[in-house]
Amino acid sequence: MPITEVTPTNVVIHPLVLLSVVDHYNRVAKNTKKRVVGVLLGQWNPDNTVNVANSYAIPFEEDERDPSVWYLDHNYHESMYEMFKKVNAKEKVVGWYHSGPKLRASDLEINELFKKFIPKPVLVVIDVKPKDLEIPTEAYYAVEEVHDDGTETTQTFIHVPSSIEAEEAEEIGVEHLLRDIKDNNVGNLSTKITNQLNSLRSLQLRLESIRDYLEKVVSGQLPVNHQIIYNLQDIFNALPSLDVPQLVKAFNIKTNDELFAIYISSLIRSIIALHELIDNKIMLKKVENNEDEPKAENTTAEANKDKAEATTSTDNKEKSEINVTIKNNIKKNKE
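Request: output the structure for the sequence above.
Response:
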């Protein structure tokens, strides 16, 4: 069992740290099996929570065939930390991170190296390519484990709860970032439905984890953890009792109100579509009438032109006949 000592109760990770780790991975180890390592900056709070507000990358190499062979540039770490202290002296080294996605055999050795800079380093494994809709962070803390047979104590990692929290300024920055990568062609309704589906999938994964744990406890594969059982009981106690008539009536009223709004929306949408159809038909009819009027005007103009040409031709013919008659009369008089 582990020696009793002060351990962190929760590790709070800020969005800036996640963005920095993802950027570090994309620059150094994208499309490879390598992992990246960096330093976490923040504060240890009086309530034993660790606030991780910033981070920076450090050069790290390890042999893929032999995990015990690795290299970490601690001189680079010392230089970077001195520069960060000049910018913000409140941020201290609280631990280190790597891109995992799981613990490695050499993590305890790397953790011992960080103990030269901080007595109680915290390890945060950040999954840069998560497959499930879960928090992509896992926090660990190294403790000494005492064996009952009297052998030498060994180092082991224990899991520490972690969460992602942001201050107001960080929330604004994250919202702007999401706005840039969001598809503007997708409407707000589609976005809300997608978010709800993702939330339901995440809830399903949590329920499946609870089910698997309880099945293993019942079958004897895992020991009973009373703290977990108490937490599950609190969750079940928070669920509403659907046998209360007032609650059933309230659910029915709420459902009917939402269905009524959906029905009215569908009806309005149908009326608008019908109105647009009628407007299109009226517009097409006007266009056809405007096209017919120039044709009629052109026909009338052509008829008037033909009539004028016929009249001119007749007048010219009559004038020619008169001239011929006059010439004949003059000729007779001369004779």
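DSSP finds seven helices and ten strands in the chain.
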